[in-house]
Amino acid sequence: MDKLRTPEKCYVEARNLADAWKRWKEEVELYIDLTMDAEDEKAKVKMFLYLVGNQGREVYETLTFEHPPNDRTFIQVLQAFENHCNPKKNEPVGRYMFNMRNQRPDETFDKYITELKLLASTCNYGAINDSLVRDRIVCGISNSSLRERLLRTLDLTLDKTMQLGRAAELTNERIKTLENPTAASNTEVNAVRNRTKPNTKFKQKQSTYVKHDKQQYRNNNNCKYCGRKHEHSRSSCPAYGQTCRKCGKTNHFESVCQSGKITKTRRPHQVRTLSDDHASEDYDSDEFF
């Protein structure tokens, strides 16, 4: 018994004081029965006042007793706290709260049943308590498919209602579990596609940079037809249409002529136009376009 856990202090300002008191009282009664002499009332009262905490002892000072402090028994002190924490219930209010209680979003079926039973305990329904809890479940559950099944079931009891409700909730959870991996798989596939999809914007930019670099390279080098720097086009080249004094061919200057022999300048009527095959060979169109 030395390792028995000491009950926590009673929270006398709890929102639901009656419920908090009920649970704490049960734990304290067990603890005192297991650790103390049943005949020593004074010791049990002192243990109770120690366990109830500062707030509980303040409440104790306001309670009314028939006997002086030294003559009070553990049962008398316990009953005085019972009257304080669990006053006479307002039956109409309790029944109103019970009949208005519906299952909340994301509230489990078992949690809803527990709350209904706690509310029903304040309604004094007596022998019809279970049947009224059953009816409230049918009316208040959020699963419309389950409600239809319950209404079709003959001789429906509270136990049967709870059994069908838990089975329906379990089935829905399994369906969600089976569906989620598919959704997750689709998400992963889309992510892979996005990672492997060609980046067209990057390719366009890369192509633009290549063209720009190529053009810049050309502009920074002397023209092989005139020996000067200019825009890479036929119309910008001063040698275009001119006759070389060294070889007699057209579309380049003597200073850049690659011919090893000197020939006489051809007569004007012998000069071929750009459309002639010879002119096309002299001035390579691919260099400019």
Automatic annotation (TrEMBL):
It comes from the Eukaryota. This is CCHC-type domain-containing protein. Residues 268-289 are annotated as: Disordered. One of its GO terms (molecular function) is nucleic acid binding. InterPro entries: Znf_CCHC. Residues 222-239, 243-259 form the CCHC-type domain.
